[in-house]
Specification:
Layout lengths: L8 H8 L4 E9 L2 E5 L5 E6 L11 E7 L2 E7 L5 E5 L4 E6 L3 E7 L6 H13 L3 E7 L4 H10 L1 H5 L3 E4 L23 H9 L3 E5 L6 H8 L3 H12 L9 E5 L7 E4 L21 H7 L16 H6 L10 H16 L3
């Protein structure tokens, strides 16, 4: 579904303010964003007031101001994926259908960071898909694939890909020397079709290679946006939305890699319900307000200790839960 058909209030809002223009935020950093209009024009826009409330994926109403524009209204979002630590909140994107958590067979991925990204997606009711890249690195891939076994058992979709970078990233798939990707990548292509997907993952996982392979004009667009936003009074873009098809029904949103993923917006007692393996065993707890750390008759502890009748929780997953519970408890005092 195209963005312009996704906001029921849009027609009503425009009727009340006919001087405003609809648009989609497709790139931005700080206070300056690029807005794409329904006819494909791209306009640099600024927020009304001192603080920008817009993120990539937002549908907005804006007003022309000479050769640029001012954001007058951000339309209601269906979701917003973000992370929050003790210092600041960092928003990734809004109005997402799914988040693609891209990991690499190398460097070795952090299971804690994976769990945090999954929890953030669960909190916003955004479907996560885990993608393990670099299948061509067989021994390393097999070890990484085994580490993801608990996530497959939880019901998460886990896909394998092999997007190997070429010698020159400016070379595109139309070249006669291009070798088709493995069949595995077709599963991801099918999962992306007709959706707005945020590509999330650590540096080195292969995000840039994936996007440059499927969106040949991505580098050109990124350079164009960066040049515009960095022309004297603007800053370089950090998050960008790319259309994968001419009809603009399938979008990829690229975001910077991250080293930390704070979850300070999650309450400690909310945590268990956002981790499927913990939640499944928590239904057997004796106490309704069980923390799953020390209480007698705790279904989670029984499962972790291998005493539950059905299913077990891996040691690494339980450690992630207990460490996060302690971390989130400290931030509230």
């Amino acid at each position: 579904m195209r963005y312009w058909a996704m906001a029921p209030p849009l027609g009503h809002t425009l009727a009340e303010a006919p001087h405003l223009n609809p648009g989609l935020v497709i790139a931005g950093h700080g206070r300056h964003v690029w807005v794409e209009t329904p006819d494909g024009r791209k306009v640099i826009c600024h927020p009304r007031g001192k603080k920008s409330q817009t993120v990539v994926g937002d549908q907005v109403l804006w007003q022309s101001t000479q050769d640029e524009g001012t954001i007058e209204k951000v339309l209601p979002r269906k979701n917003l994926l973000f992370r929050q630590d003790e210092i600041r909140t960092k928003s990734f994107a809004s109005n997402l259908d799914q988040v693609i958590i891209l990991l690499g067979a190398e460097p070795e991925f952090s299971e804690s960071q994976l769990a945090r990204a999954l929890i953030a997606a669960e909190a916003e009711k955004i479907r996560p898909i885990i993608v393990l890249n670099k299948r061509d690195l067989a021994p390393l891939f097999e070890r990484a694939w085994q580490r993801l076994a608990p996530y497959r058992a939880m019901g998460y979709t886990v896909l394998a890909t092999a997007f190997k970078p070429r010698a020159h990233e400016t070379v595109h798939d139309s070249d006669p020397d291009f070798v088709p990707e493995p069949t595995d990548n077709r599963q991801l292509a099918i999962a992306l079709e007709g959706k707005t997907s945020l590509i999330l993952g650590p540096s080195g996982a292969g995000k840039s290679t994936l996007i440059n392979r499927w969106v040949p004009k991505a580098q050109v667009l990124t350079q164009e946006i960066s040049s515009a936003l960095n022309s004297g009074k603007h800053t370089t873009t950090s998050t960008t939305l790319y259309w994968m098809d001419a009809a603009k029904t399938t979008a990829l949103i690229d975001s910077p890699g991250f080293q930390e993923f704070g979850l300070n917006h999650i309450a400690p007692m909310q945590l268990a319900q956002l981790m499927p393996d913990i939640a499944a065993q928590a239904t057997d707890c004796k106490f309704y307000n069980c923390s799953h750390l020390h209480e007698p008759g705790c279904g989670v502890l029984l499962s972790f200790q291998g005493s539950a009748a059905q299913g077990t929780i891996s040691a690494s997953r339980y450690k992630i839960y207990s460490d996060l519970f302690a971390e989130l408890s400290q931030t509230r005092y």
